[in-house]
Each structure stands twice: as C-alpha cells, then as structure tokens.
Amino acid sequence: MKTLSNLSVTAVILLATAISCSAQENLSVPEDYSVPDTDVVGALVLGNNEFALDLYEKVCDKQESDNIFFSPYSISSALGMTYVGARGQTATEMAGVLHFTLPVAATNSAFHSLTELLSSGDLSSAGSGDSFTLSISNGLWVQDGFHLLDEYVSEVTRYYSAAVRNLDFIDDSEGSRETINEWVAQSTLNRILDLIPPGSLDEDTRVVLTNAVYFKASWRKPFDERSTEDAPFALVGGSTIDVPMMNQTDFFNYVATEGCEAVELDYAAGNASMLILLPDGDMAEFQQGFNADMLETIRRRLSSCNVSLSMPKFEFSRSMQLSDLLQDLGMESAFGSAADFSGFTGSPDLFISKVLHKAFVKVDEAGTEAAAATAVIMGLTAIPDQPVQMNIDSPFMFFILDRASGSIVFMGRVMDPSS
Length: 419
What we know:
Layout: E1 5-16, H1 38-62, E2 68-70, H2 72-83, H3 88-98, H4 104-118, H5 123-127, E3 132-143, H6 150-159, E4 163-167, H7 173-187, E5 205-217, E6 229-234, E7 240-257, E8 260-266, E9 272-279, H8 283-287, H9 292-301, E10 303-312, E11 314-321, H10 323-329, H11 342-345, E12 351-363, H12 369-379, E13 388-391, E14 396-402, E15 408-414
C-alpha cells in the first residue's frame, strides 16, 4: 500500500483592543507589482533562517528533552503580516527579532515572491495522490464594524494573498473561534484541529491573522517497508527504546562535519529535501550556539555518497504559545500597552494578546510508483563494497528545506520517536 509523509502547520496571531471604530465594507486589492530580484528574496531567507535558529534555541531552553517541531516560515509569515502595521519602537523590535533587514515594502514583496517560489500544488492535488504538495494560506479575520486602514488591507491582500473576512468576536467569540478553527482544519486537510483553544478569543479581540502550511511529499528514494524492523534508539539519560527503524542503502548527499553526521533525503518532486543532523555526542551540547551559518556550512559540504542508512519512523504534533518566547527574544512592546500598530487603524489601539502555533509531522517509508522507479534505477548504479554507515539511533535535528532558496520551511528535533 502506498503511504505518504505529511506535514502541516499553522500559526495564528490575535490582536486585541478595547476601542471600537466605524465599519469597513469594501476591501480593495491593488494592481500588479514588480517582483523583487533574487538578492532581495535571499536577504529575506537569510533573516528568516536566523530567526528560526534563534527561536529553536529558546524552545530548547523551555523543553530540554521533548520532541520539537514547528514551521519558522509559517511564524515569520504570520508575524510579517503583523509587521506591516507596526510602527515606531514596536516595528524596530519586530525587525530585530525577525531579522528583517529590508525596508517594509521590500520585505512584503520578498515574502510574496518566496511564497510563490515555495508553493507547489494545492489541497486537491494532495488528496488525489500527487507526489508533492506545498500549500500556503493566509487569513485576516476582522471584527465586524471595526475599521482597518485601506492601505493595510491592501498590503496584506497584495503581498500575502490573505483572505479577508469579518467575524463577531464581541457577541460570538466562541462561534468566531470555531469558524477560524474550521478554516485551519480545511487548509491543512484536518491535520491541525482546534488550533485556537476555548477562551482565547473574547470581546476585546479585534483582529486575528492566520497562516496555514500543508506539505505532503513522497521520497525520491522510498524505503522498502519489508526492510523496516524494530531496533534500539538511545534516549537522554542512557536508556533505550525499541522503535521501527527504516533501512536502505543508496546514494545520498552526506557529510561528517561540524560535530555531526548529515544526510539529505530528496523528495520525488518539487525542490524540497529533508536534512538530518545526527550529533557526534550530546544533543544539548551540539544545539548550543547552532546557527544559520553552521547550517549553510553543512549544506555546502554535502556530497553524493553511498550510504547504508537506518532511521526511525516518527509521528507527533506540538502546540506552542510563542508570546513569552518572542518577548524573551526582544519583541516586548508588541504585547502590551506600549504597542504601536497604528498602521492597522491609524491609531495605536492594538496590541498582540497571543501568538499560537501548532504543527504535525509524520515520516515513514513514503513512496509512489514514480519515486520507486527512480529509486530502483539509482539502486542499479555501481555500489562500492563498503558504504558509509549512518545509523540514526539517537536524538537528531531535522529540517525541511527548499533547495532553491535555502529557506527553512519546517524544523525540529526527535528525542524519542515513539512519543
């Protein structure tokens, strides 16, 4: 039976205020705009990746021995829509934490181009069994009768393709929560359910910004299910647990460097790959100070090598409340009375009440007939007698990357494949 790897993620930002304003009925979308050059997109990707590793470090500080999984791209994109309306010190802090180095207009345009570059396929193609789908959706949910500046709405619809909808947070906060959660579920093929917990929306909520990413792909070189067998995986503290380990020998991009072994597994279509980093020693020591430059160094040193690869199957979901983590990184004023999001309404009457994130990942033998054929052809090339052994039987980091841009779409670590 054909199986597929599935990853889905969504982020939501809630903005609240106690001030009501006049209604806005017609939301216009401006004309076409120029696409930024690759240098501008590259600057955005570099900043997003630096933010990803900063956030990962903070998450690790809070969760010393747990599995971690999130989408830096999703979080950056949702916060990017919020940044459009930030002003003054709030904008300065957001730019610093998110590593936005471009002017606001260039940042917006680069986000649009990067999303166009990353997106491939849609949810219907995922359901029909296509070997690669990366679907990205944005939403702007506004209190009915609450006026947003036309300029702000134009920016988020123009550059982020955000769908705009009015809800009644004041009189029906629970119904509004259910409506947004339904949109999230539909945008992730029901992989992300109940993103917004009960009580997260109330009569002070005025704006909710959402980003949803759904990813489904088959390995270019799938694992044979018949080769999967239980084997020990080392846990923190010295104990082991038996987990299903997938096995195959083939040519992969591989390197042993920077205190780890690294292997890259390509997907059958699109430009995405999974990069796995297996530390030589303790995971906690390895991830301390790990940054975007180290990641790029590892990627540059990869080369095709015959590898006897053993790695665990795993599946888990994670929810995160990012407000405290973002404040720890330096984004402080956005969450209190000092917030200046006057770019939303013309007045500094909004602040961020919560930033929620939830992600799901499943990795298994995954394959399609086309991918299996490619794997068979590759398997028929000349194979050295002694392939490099890479046994991923202890905690590891992993990244879902767009090879063309280098953008980190997803990242995480596996401390226990069974949890």
